[in-house]
Amino acid sequence: MKKIMLAVAMLAAVAAAFAQANPGDQNGVSASEVKLGSFQALSGPVAAIGVPVKKGMDAYFNWVNAQGGVNGRKISLTVADDAFNPSNTVVEVKRLVESDKVFAMIAGLGAPGNLAVVDYLEAQKVPYVYQAAGAGSLTIPPRRYVFGVQPNYTTEGAIAAKYLVEQKKAKKIGIVYRNLDDGKEEYASVKKYLASKGMTLAAEVPVEATATDFSANVVKLMQAGVDSVIVMLFVPQSSNFVKQAKQLGMTGQNYILTYSNADPTFAALAGPAIAAGVESLAWVDVDFTDPKAHFIQVYQATFPGEIPNAYAVAGMIAAETFTEALRRTGKNLTRERLVAALETMDNWTGKIGPAISYGPIARKGDQARLGVKTMYVLRFLADGTMERAFGWIKL
């Protein structure tokens, strides 16, 4: 019996030593690799966003791995195609966590999918860096393992209204928004901001996510006599809406788009002549005309001769943010240590992304997981390119 007990004790000691030397192996970490997971719309109507986001992440992690990885580990990324369907998202994320054993999640696309899985990831204690969605409820109230980067729709709605009132001198503002949680959040924020200025919305137009004919919506805006329209829709809906609105005679109004449209893809789908003069809020701030820019060099190491679009840059920012947290964690990589490292990133600015700030929830409260909180304005030109129309706007 003593020999058996001694053997058991020795095995336990060996197992403990192995676990200490290889922390988190059971959760996607080995001595040479860390496994990440993501979900994107690689098919379906939103693939125009999901495909370049994946390419941006792939390019950045390839670049990191080519330099030896982080703290001796290469980064492996598995991206599931959920086709922007939250039912698919739930299945794919559970597979990534429970079967693929990913260490962390990064940059899942879309508010519907993110809202469907965020509580599951929190319960599983899986760190999740950058949700490619603007739903404020993802980060307010803050969750321990969930770190946002891009601005939420509450922030954006107020900024859009502020810009139209203060810079465009708008008097009769209408809003067209997705009749889902993300659109409703922006609508509520716009309405609240205008109320603080003693104003009301001239027209409120919810749009179903599958709608393609916007003629009735346009008539409602025209009857209200709006001088400005906030368009809280994603491509291809946003492009189709503006195209139909202008074709039906709404050519003199100010159009301000949600930030997911801050890319030439909008103009390509609407047509450059239709897009000309339309503005979009934005938070990705890079120079696409500089071939020597860091983000272009990184991207073209994987995709030679190709210029990344704004969605690809967003994927690169997600990867850059995670890589910095990984670097700060050190060689002893565990999920808890990664969270602690992320919380040290206070007003950190990457070579690609704008300044973000995290911190302990006990100290920073609702600000602990927000990421970016300011935005600027881009304007589409007649050739489909974009120019800066207005600088950073803070609330």
Walk me through this protein's architecture.
49% of the residues are buried. The chain is globular. α2 links the parallel β1 and β2. It has 2 domains: 210 residues, Rossmann fold, CATH 3.40.50; 149 residues, Response regulator (Rossmann fold, 3-Layer(aba) Sandwich). Strands 7-6-8-9-10-11-12 form a 7-stranded mixed sheet, sandwiched between helices. Strands 2-1-3-4-5 form a 5-stranded parallel sheet. With 395 residues, the protein is of the alpha/beta class. The N terminus is likely disordered.
Briefly, what is this?
The protein has 395 residues and is an alpha/beta fold.
Count of runs of 4 or more consecutive helical residues: 14
CATH homologous superfamily (4th level) name of the largest domain: Response regulator
Q: What's the arrangement of strands in the largest beta sheet?
A: 7-6-8-9-10-11-12
Strand content is: 15-25%
Number of domains: 2
For the record, the CATH architecture of the largest domain stands as 3-Layer(aba) Sandwich
Task: Let me know the average pLDDT.
Answer: 92
